[in-house]
Design a protein that fits this description.
heterodimer, A: 379 residues, 13 helices, globular, B: 563 residues, alpha+beta, Beta-lactamase, six-stranded mixed sheet, five-stranded antiparallel sheet, 19 helices, elongated
Chain lengths: 379, 563
């Protein structure tokens, strides 16, 4: 049973791997992150000049994150991924602690009405970005140790508990979008591990039922939801962000206004360098720019799953597939938000949006996937 | 897994395509609005000139001073500097720092020299927009006709209001590309959409005749202590208005804006907007109808040459007795023909005519002469007068209409009807504007509009010669000018207040024209509530004479052999 899904993936990618690992995958990841640095500069220089008096403020930070990320990739790539197998549980516990630490006054930092950051000296870290990957590490380790676990409900329970507690802590920040993201990853992991569709449904239905409850719990979510239906009902408040994103997209048309020529980034579009960087990219490079960008992202995802399917260890498979899923889910959710398909939530476009925690951790995660591709022959 | 992700990718890529390809236009249009801030560029308002190009309303160059607080770099410094030109520093500073509006008016209007001096300092965030001041070189002259503009320069009353769409021109804009809070973007050029100046309006009014008429009427107003005086001078050939006088008046350069009741009263063009009972001047219309009907062979019409009216002072209609103003004693008003009835202004004769023609025929003439309807003048707020409805008309009221009672008309209606009766029977819509032209040579003449025919040329000729007799031999003697064929008809009407005759309140009037055989000038004189003498023949007719003499002088019209 657990082999069927994996088997399907295998059929999809039948090509042979090489000892050097999947360099195309690695190249695509680095290319995307580098493109992100350029986009962050373009989207942020005006706002950075006005707010910080330094047009390169965000650019420098992102560049530093990119270099750090490259270091992380290098470090992780040489590491045999199997060596970190045992880190699963400690990683989960550590990230849960970090998540909890956010609520400690003086350490946690509150921005835009949510406490999502840890401030340690000059560095601020977003623990939820780490927790996503820690959860993947834990789940991969847990299922690969005893593949029989997913056959019983009791066996799946610890994964649900781990995912649930991560979700709960993130939800308390509050950060609904990352919660949804972790939830989606959790379900994907269980699915990737080979749970029967029936059992999957048994988990999925209660989770889906929980969504309306969660929305009703916070009044701002309801307002955002209605703003998403028709943003012009409250163009200055809830609808503002989406309207500005739509204006940016519309201004880009098919071919874009040209790199660095966005009109909306002149403070009209909030979070232009982070969560809504895709709006600026859409404005500057047009629809075809978006297609090319998602071709690159899609390529990374497909290569990621290909690496997973070719891996000979179950752990490696779950690890690579899990990390790829985190990346895929985040990319898709971000694009859905920016284009107004789902209500606006704060979720970065991985590897592209400004935000060092996300960038470094995602690059490190991608490094792990690459490591899986390198060490497929029993190294 | 891959299927699920492909599905999501397709959803948002489809959405991107929809927004960027289809919805794009509407969204872009909305977005444009938030990307720019604009400073208006006012168009130069067209001038108003008289028939010969004399300036009646023009502009004095002035500017409005604006600030865009978000573009101001040094508010304190700017306030210091501006205070030297525009006054109160604190108010200026408050405005310079008020970011609640995208642009704010620092000074609504200041002289060109001030702005030129200011502009040299190149204060960041301060802008100038043309905002000319309207000036009226002739002050009070024809003030109700010309009208005035509001503070923002739009025409509100008179011709300034009626022709505002032509005079106003089209505003332009300077568009600044800004960020969210209105800060100018570096390197972004300001787009300049130039204003289109308004067209100049040339009137039919002749400033010389207007001044003459105002002078004459002004003197009468003083001499008779009348409540008000009005006069219309028009060219009967096409109903071009040469002068239109309403006194008392006011100076257009010093409009009493603080006293609205007074302003409304003074600025009302009563020659067009107010009605009065015309009295005997209306007999022109009754006579015209009779002559025309007789010529057409209507058996009921009275022969204008040979019919002799009964000499009795009274007529009894519907049991009501209608009297002549004269006592008919000692052979007065005896055995009159139509010409003599006009000379004597004998009321019973015109009762006879009205009753002989009958309501239906007579009302057809009233309609043709445009009583109870608009004259079609190019002026807002024209009254159509008051005409009793034909269907419910009592004979006694109808009989009175024959000599100008039980009917209310505007001065313009009467003047135009009289013009039509003596110009060969053509009714032209009266007009105040002759055409428009722009400073760069575009030109349009407004052609006279013939609204219809009232009487035949022959009837018109007969009537005119009878009216010439009125001035030569009858009640209009005081309008007689040696060597010129002046014709006319007097009128003295009692005023009604709340439906009852107001004792001692009269409207004295006179309609005159010359030359009688080919009228070039027609004047209607109205003196409202003169004190002392109140007969049209003694109060109003001399005014017409004086105005005609003035016109003869101005136009250098030679004497002709009047027999």
């Amino acid at each position: 049973m657990e082999r069927t899904n994996r088997g399907r993936l295998r059929e999809l990618f039948r090509a042979e791997g090489r000892g050097a690992g999947d360099l195309l995958f690695l190249g695509a990841v680095i290319l995307l992150a580098a493109y992100g640095v350029v986009c962050v500069f373009s989207a942020s220089y005006y706002n950075a000049e006005v707010q910080y008096g330094d047009a390169l403020f965000f650019f420098k930070k992102q560049l530093a994150g990119f270099v750090l990320g490259l270091g992380a990739i290098a470090a992780v790539s040489f590491l045999d991924y199997r060596k970190i197998e045992k880190c699963g549980l400690p990683a989960l516990i550590a990230s849960l602690l970090l998540l909890a630490l956010v609520f400690v006054p003086g350490v946690g930092k509150t921005n835009y009405g949510a406490t999502r950051w840890l401030e340690i000296g000059p560095i601020s870290v977003q623990p939820s970005e780490i927790a996503k990957y820690a959860f993947v590490l834990f789940t991969a380790r847990y299922f690969s140790k005893d593949p029989g676990r997913m056959r019983t409900f009791v066996g799946v329970l610890p994964v649900l508990a781990a995912g649930g507690s991560v979700c709960l802590l993130i939800m308390l920040e509050p950060n609904m979008s990352v919660t949804m993201c972790v939830g989606a990853v959790m379900i994907a992991m269980i699915f990737l591990a080979g749970l029967s569709p029936k059992a999957l449904a048994a988990i999925l239905v209660p989770v889906l039922l929980l969504v309306p409850v969660l929305i009703a719990a916070e009044p701002y979510r309801l307002r955002r939801l209605s703003a998403f239906m028709d943003p012009w009902v409250s163009p200055k408040e809830e609808g503002y962000q989406l309207i500005q994103s739509l204006y940016a997209l519309a201004n880009g048309r098919l071919f874009g206004v040209g790199l660095f020529h966005s009109r909306q980034k002149f403070r009209f579009l909030p979070f232009a360098e982070s969560d809504f960087i895709l709006s600026v990219i859409a404005e500057e490079t047009g629809f075809f720019g978006i297609v090319l960008l998602f071709a690159l992202i899609g390529f990374i995802i497909i290569r990621g799953y290909r690496i997973a399917s070719r891996c000979e260890t179950f752990y490696g498979y779950l690890l690579a597939a899990g990390i790829t899923t985190v990346f895929a889910v985040q990319s898709a959710l971000n694009a859905l938000v920016v284009s107004g398909c789902i209500p606006p939530t704060g979720l970065p476009l991985p590897l592209v949006s400004a935000g060092n925690t996300s960038l470094v951790v995602t690059m490190a995660g991608m490094g792990l996937v690459y490591s899986v591709s390198r060490h497929r022959r029993g190294g | 897994m891959i299927l699920a992700i492909t599905f999501l990718f397709c959803i948002f890529l489809g959405r991107f395509l929809y927004i960027q390809l289809i919805w794009e236009e509407e969204l872009h249009y909305r977005a444009l609005d938030q990307w720019t801030r604009e400073i208006p560029v006012n168009a130069g308002r067209g001038a108003i000139l008289d028939a010969s190009g004399e300036l009646l309303a023009g502009n004095r160059a002035a500017y409005a001073v604006y600030a865009r607080a978000s573009a101001v770099e040094d508010a304190e410094g700017a306030a210091d500097l501006l205070a030297g030109f525009l006054g109160d520093r604190e108010t200026l500073l408050r405005k310079l720092t008020d970011r609640s509006k995208s642009e704010i008016v620092l000074c609504r209007r200041t002289a060109k020299e001030v702005v030129e001096a200011l502009a040299e300092h190149e204060v960041k965030g301060v802008y100038y927009a043309r905002n000319d001041e309207r000036v009226y070189p002739y002050g009070a002259l024809a003030s109700q006709v010309i009208g005035f503009t509001a503070y923002d320069g739009t025409g509100t009353t008179g011709l300034e209001g009626y022709y505002d769409n032509l005079l106003a021109g089209k505003k332009g804009e300077i568009l600044f590309e800004t960020d969210l809070v209105g800060v100018d973007l570096k390197g972004a050029a300001a787009a300049y959409l130039p204003a289109t100046d308004g067209l100049n309006l040339r009137l039919t009014l002749d400033v010389r005749i207007q001044s003459l008429a105002e002078r004459v009427m002004g003197r009468v107003l003083g001499e008779t202590s009348a409540k008000a005086v009005r006069a219309i001078v028009l060219d009967p050939r096409d109903a071009s208005v040469l002068a239109m006088v309403n006194l008392p008046s006011y100076d257009l350069n010093e409009i009493p804006r603080s006293d609205l009741t007074l302003l409304n009263s003074l600025s009302r063009n009563r020659a067009v907007s107010d009605v009065y009972e015309p009295g005997s001047t209306f007999k022109i219309i009754t006579a015209a109808a009779d002559i025309e009907e007789y010529l057409r062979g209507n058996k009921r019409a009275l022969d204008p040459m040979r019919h002799v009216f009964p000499s009795a002072r009274t007529r009894t209609v519907d049991g009501t007795t209608i009297r002549c103003w004269s006592d008919h004693k000692n052979g007065k008003h005896a055995n009159e023909t139509l010409a003599e009835a006009l000379n004597n202004s004998c009321n019973p004769c015109f009762v006879d005519i009205a009753l002989a023609l009958g309501k239906e025929t007579f009302y057809d003439y009233l309609a043709a002469f445009r009583f109870g309807r608009g004259t079609g003048v190019d002026f807002s707020g024209e009254s159509i007068g008051m005409l009793l409805p034909e269907s419910s008309l009592r004979d006694c009221d109808f009989a009175r209409i024959g000599f100008g009672q039980s009917i209310a008309v505007t001065p313009l209606q009467l003047a135009c009807a009289a013009a039509s009766a003596v110009n060969g029977g053509k009714y032209y819509a009266p007009r105040l504007a002759a055409g428009v032209f722009s400073d760069d040579g575009v030109k349009e003449e407004f052609a006279p509009v013939l609204l219809g025919r009232t009487v035949s040329e022959e009837a018109s000729r007969i009537l005119a010669s009878m009216l010439e007799g009125v001035v030569r031999d009858g009640s209009g003697k005081k309008a007689y000018i040696e060597g010129y064929r002046v014709a006319g008809k007097t009128g003295t009407a009692q005023k009604y207040e709340d439906g009852v005759i107001a004792q001692g309140k009269y409207v004295s009037s006179f309609v005159g024209f010359f030359p009688a055989d080919a009228p070039r000038y027609l004047a209607l004189i109205i003196v409202d509530e003169p004190q002392g003498s109140y007969y049209g023949s003694t109060v109003a007719a001399p005014c017409a004479k004086e105005i005609f003499e003035g016109i003869i002088d101005i136009m250098k019209i030679p004497k002709e052999d009047t027999k």
